[in-house]
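User: I'm curious whether this sequence folds into something compact or stays loose and floppy. Could you predict its structure so I can see for myself?
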Amino acid sequence: MATSRMKEHRNNPEMFIDLQYSLAKSYTSTPELRKTWLESMANYHETNGNYSEVSIMLFLADMFGLLF
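Assistant: Here's the prediction. I'll summarize afterward.
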């Protein structure tokens, strides 16, 4: 499961965010949960100083809010 693998890869930012994205994609049928995971990814990127990634995640989260 992605959540247990996320704990294993907490210190590997690329793998951790990749697992988060996989989890977000799995919630295609429930936009509220997908939006939550995208916002969580934005927070993680912000913590690591990846501000362009933050803007992408927040844009995607906002788009899901508009579409659904």
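Summary: The two ends are 27 Å apart (CA to CA). Residues 41 and 57 are 7 Å apart (CA to CA).
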